[in-house]
Specification:
Elements: H1 2-17, H2 19-24, E1 26-38, E2 43-54, E3 59-74, E4 77-90, E5 93-110, E6 113-125, E7 130-141, E8 151-161, E9 166-181, E10 184-197, E11 200-214
Parallel strand pairs: 1-11
Antiparallel strand pairs: 1-2, 2-3, 3-4, 4-5, 5-6, 6-7, 7-8, 8-9, 9-10, 10-11
Length: 215
């Protein structure tokens, strides 16, 4: 219970410290789904569609479909090859991107927290150019509580452009995951995203939901 209180305080602190940023930056809603099928004890197939919306004006601007496998090498390592197809509207144009990516996730416990450290190397294939990017997402998960197995978490994910040799995006996450009924899990989260464009950093605020169905 103390860990849940700590999570709430961290989230309130994050919002308080960044209040001027929140007041001036745009808001978005991200809706993600995962359809998961275990092939055997160590291999899981996943299909992950996602849609993203601007709040003002309320409009769909981004869709993606991520498809791939999670292979559990050991209790502390999972390797995941994926392919992602993206459609995004920018300045009135609909842009497409193909994004194969390889992930390695290390899992361990630290000071009572469940910790996951995911490294992702992705190739971004577009009509304009191809590029490579590295993303590292570090997540701290708190203990589950209640009959719904509510589990708070916090994460940070920097994005590093390998061609430009620079950091150009960072995300800070806070949220909860919980079990609804058998085979169904859900999550609610907030992201503070900082992106660097033309030498300037801008911020976006994201409210998101996830729904996971295992069959």
């Amino acid at each position: 219970m103390n860990k849940i209180v700590l999570t709430c305080l961290l989230l309130v602190g994050l919002l308080t410290v960044n209040y001027p940023v929140l007041a001036d930056s745009n808001w978005q809603y991200w809706s993600g789904y995962t359809f998961s099928r275990a092939i055997n004890d160590n291999l899981v197939f996943n299909l992950k569609p996602e849609a993203r919306f601007f709040y003002e004006p309320c409009s769909l601007y981004y869709t993606q479909i991520d498809i791939g496998l999670d292979y559990k090498v050991s209790d502390w390592l999972t390797v995941s090859p994926y392919y992602c197809h993206i459609e995004e509207e920018k300045r009135g144009d609909l842009l497409s991107e193909s994004r194969p990516h390889l992930n390695a996730t290390f899992n361990f416990k630290l000071f009572g927290f469940k910790v996951s450290d995911r490294s992702r190397f992705e190739c971004r294939i577009t009509e304009a150019k191809d590029s490579f990017r590295y993303r590292n997402k570090l997540t701290f998960k708190f203990s589950k509580v209640s009959k719904f197995k509510i589990q708070p978490f916090i994460s940070e994910e920097p994005f590093y452009d390998l061609a430009a040799d620079k950091l150009n995006k960072n995300r800070i996450y806070a949220g909860i995951d919980f079990e609804m009924i058998k085979n169904f899990k859900a999550g609610i989260y907030y992201i503070l995203e900082a992106s660097k464009n033309s030498g300037n950093w801008t911020n976006s605020n994201v409210l998101g939901t996830t729904l996971i169905y295992s069959f």
